[in-house]
Amino acid sequence: MLEMRPDCERCGVDLPAEAPGAFICSFECTFCAQCSEALDDLCPNCAGELVDRPTRAVHLHEKSPPSRERHYKS
Question: Which Pfam families match (predicted)?
């Protein structure tokens, strides 16, 4: 199951699990659409491809909660 990280690692913008617009690599490094585009859809951590992260319906958050651990480092 995906962690569904709550923020962009590059700029810190919120990326809710139920909303589109997040991009991830195979290690689940997570970026917003703007940062993913600026990175040419390549993860700066592992050089893997950044792809659209699927969304998680809100009614599933109780059973399978998204991560609350933020990864943005200013």
Answer: DUF1272
